[in-house]
């Protein structure tokens, strides 16, 4: 899994809008705070709106605002919706698995599966509110392995 500029900029925009406490911000204002060009940002904001994360308001004082409470914006979900599967390799993907001719007896697949599970574990437990409140926490290896055994 690689987070593209689109995923990074979408998270930046969500943070800026979350810091604006539910108020409306113009694309220009968001662009200035995220350092993303307005043309590219507009595409990202429209996609976030279609996915229900944002709402828009037309007019001279129009712009964008969060469409959900920050506590209800799951970062793992946002990344999956914008970037696709969290797995670094398709043979280890849960949602878009693709077989590989070397898969039988592959010694790398367990590694890719652990990487996928670790990424999913962290992102699925992180909300926009966590980012806004700077509540990113460290997880213990046993928490991640327990998560892996349940999935």
TrEMBL record:
Coiled-coil ranges (or none): none
Gene3D superfamilies to which the protein is assigned, alphabetical: Winged helix-like DNA-binding domain superfamily/Winged helix DNA-binding domain (1.10.10.10)
GO molecular function per UniProt: DNA binding; DNA-binding transcription factor activity
Keywords: DNA-binding
InterPro entries: TR_Rrf2-type_CS (IPR030489), Tscrpt_reg_Rrf2 (IPR000944), WH-like_DNA-bd_sf (IPR036388), WH_DNA-bd_sf (IPR036390)
Superkingdom, taxonomy of origin: Bacteria
GO CC terms: cytosol
Protein name per its UniProtKB record: Rrf2 family transcriptional regulator
Record NCBIfam families: rrf2_super
Protein source organism: Heyndrickxia ginsengihumi
Residues of the signal peptide: none
